[in-house]
Amino acid sequence: MNIESLKMFCLVVEEGTISQAARLSFVTQPAVTRQIRQLEEVYKAQLFERNAGKLTLSKAGEILYPFAKEIVEYSKLSFAAIQELTGNEEIVLNIGASSTIGEYLLPGLLGEFNRSYPDLKFSLSIGNTPTILAKLENNEIDIAFVEGAVENKELIREKFADDELILVTSPAHLWSSRDHISIQELSEAKMIWRETDSGTRLIVENALNEHGVLGNIKSAMELGSYQSIKSAVEADLGVSIMPRLTVTKEIKSGTLHEVKITNFLISRDLWMVQKSHRFKKSGLKYFVQFIRQ
């Protein structure tokens, strides 16, 4: 048995077919089959079953898969540790972040951290929270930063910041001369929302519903990104409740105006999420310490 056979086994499980695993590995299907059979000889058990032409894991295969994934991951970590020691290969810290954090918060933090650790390289993946957490679970990234729910209890979740959701208008809006409005006054404006399945929108709607005003608010439009919402608000097409992180520059420059809502505050936690590994990249250890500070 060798690491390559375990890698191939994991790839076949994840891709669902030997042909696709062979294609991705640039080898022939018989070569893949041979590696799987070698593993079956080692474990003296059948790892896959074929039902109506479909490849599925046997009970033994189901037991082996998480062990194989862990062995392959530790093999990668051991290689990275030795390469870091010898300096033969640059170390890359693979970071995943949900959209708001990845686009508005992390770039500044990475720039500041890089000044202290200029030899450490970064790869940043941005997506929605479920996608990023799936990448972490599959060892595609080393650490995740998300603002949504983390349901996997095996992941280590640590709050590293929070973000307030605030009401913004254009400088031309009639509320731009005011510092506060009552929550009932929201019914007088048209709201620009994120798309229906947005986590941020759900938080806002729940908070407004708790105050009994959600049903009275008129909708101007739904847009799929914070940048498009900011442009629409700047054009005075409506108002919006947005994460402060996304509008800090616009408020400072005066292209957007913050209006506080009396006795109404929405805040959400931002999470740093890791897997429980005995061994971690040294660069990851330094980065986690930096974020905690």
Automatic annotation (TrEMBL):
Residues covered by the HTH lysR-type domain: 1-58
Alphabetical list of InterPro entries matching this protein: LysR_HTH_N (IPR000847), LysR_subst-bd (IPR005119), WH-like_DNA-bd_sf (IPR036388), WH_DNA-bd_sf (IPR036390)
Highest taxon in the source lineage: Bacteria
Key words, A-Z: DNA-binding, Transcription, Transcription regulation
The protein, known as: LysR family transcriptional regulator
Annotated Pfam families: HTH_1 (PF00126), LysR_substrate (PF03466)
Molecular functions (GO terms): DNA-binding transcription factor activity; transcription cis-regulatory region binding
CDD domains in alphabetical order: PBP2_CysL_like
Sequence similarity: Belongs to the LysR transcriptional regulatory family.
Organism for this UniProt entry: Niallia taxi
